[in-house]
Amino acid sequence: MSSSSTLPANPLTRPxxxxxxxxxxxxxxLVDTFYPEVAEAVVTIFARLGMAVDxxxxxxxxxxxxxxxxxxxxxxxxxxxxxxxxxNAGDIVCPxxxxxxxxxxxxxxxxxxxxxxxxxxxxxxxxxxxxxxxxVDVLGVTDLGARCEATLTYHDxxxxxxxxxxxxxxxxLIGAVRGAHLVEMEDADRCCGFGGTFAVHYPEISTAMTAxxxxxxxxxxxxxxxxxxxxxxxxxxGVIRRRRLNxxxxxxxxxxxAGCREDLWHA
Length: 267
Known about the structure:
- This protein is an alpha/beta fold.
- The protein has two domains: 17-137, Glutathione S-transferase Yfyf (Class Pi), Chain A, domain 2 (Up-down Bundle); 144-265, 3-Layer(aba) Sandwich (Rossmann fold).
- It has helices spanning 29-34, 36-48, 64-68, 72-86, 97-110, 115-125, 131-138, 158-163, 168-175, 198-201, 203-220, 230-242, 252-257, 262-265; strands at 22-25, 52-54, 92-94, 128-130, 147-154, 178-182, 224-227, 248-251.
- The chain is globular.
- It starts with 21 loop residues before the first strand and ends with a helix.
């Protein structure tokens, strides 16, 4: 089965009365390991909306690294575990476009010849959303009461934009942050050069791509670059730090949970 036929259209925006009382958080590996404050910010966001967050402790990797590297047997094992953990959950929300893309599209390829697991994977995929997509398209929310007096630019990560078609939702949310001024950088939709193991196998190309991305961030005049995937932000931040630039790399969940600029600049 081709990945283009894995999911129906997004559900209609839900009115307040129809919103669920809770969501289930798929934390994502890099968030869990290196950026737990992003997961904490997601909990803060939903608490403001009056929604509880469940975070199954037995969750692990969705299988994307193994899948991208060609280790399909190992990827299927991780995918089966993911499905078993989340198949009885309601709406599943993840602060990572690449992981959501894996669940929606990668699983359809992994289980194309296994009707039983394919059906189970599709049921989970239909309830799995990237954070900004869920807030804007499902809950119909853009203003979360966040405040950050800063000039910001936005980086479109590859799986999020090209795989899931998510572009306007993060910008709508940033635009509603009080005190924030969004400026578009040149080639905002161009890859930052991370690409998982791409950065390891092709370091010269990856480094050049990241350097160009940071050049565009600097040229925008922004004080911070906002993104929806910590993998991209971690890669970009590495160059920012090596150049000793006074620019922040901020996951959008942290921005949306912020009560003021100091919440982000002095964290």
